Amino acid sequence: MVKRQTATLLRKTHRYLGLFLGIQFLMWTISGLYFSWTDIDKIHGDQFRKENVFTMSSKNLISPALLDLDSPIQSLQLREIADNPYYLVNKEQLFDARTGKPKNEITKAEALKIAEKNMLPELEVKSIEKINEVGKHHEYRGRPLPVYVVSYTHPDAVKAYISITDGGFQRVRHRSWRWFDFLWMTHTMDYEGRDNFNTTILRLFSLLGLITVLSGFTLWFVSSPTLRKIKKRK
Q1: The pTM is what?
Q2: What values do phi and psi take at 152, rounded to 5?
Q3: Is the pLDDT of residue 126 over 80?
């Protein structure tokens, strides 16, 4: 039999570990429920985007070999910006596909055209602004900069992000995505960048959680009347 002093220590350990870890366990449960009950496509904002985006056909384009390049072509993409064709070379430099003239960045008017092409027509543009940098917790972190942010008049505070350098439609962000992002942070316990599963705090809480569960099993084992009766029979 386990001594009374040892049993008391187990109870206190289990109790205080449960109290210490309870809030994080609750956040893991809430975030897990949210992830399993939400449609990831809606989190991505697909409901605000057009299902079929029309792609223009172009002719009278110059050969990419005639472009004035600083380095050899490793990748080449034909991209439409405000009804005009452009070559995107090496995923970083735009050239007018008809004249070969380089394009350093797109304008606000062109960004609005790109947003109009990709977003639902019933969405009303509220504002557009340029951002050159974002913080670790920004909803657009980890994506190409600078960008234009097109904000819409909508209850979900919908925003579309468009790369200024290459005119690429990057991301849609809205209220449900922001809730997802916050809960994902509490789930991974990465309070800096969200996606690191190897943080010290996550490892510590996982280990303490295991100890809490094991202490609970041990406490049941040493305090179970049924087990005591079985031992006495033996």
Answers
A1: 0.78
A2: -115, 150
A3: yes
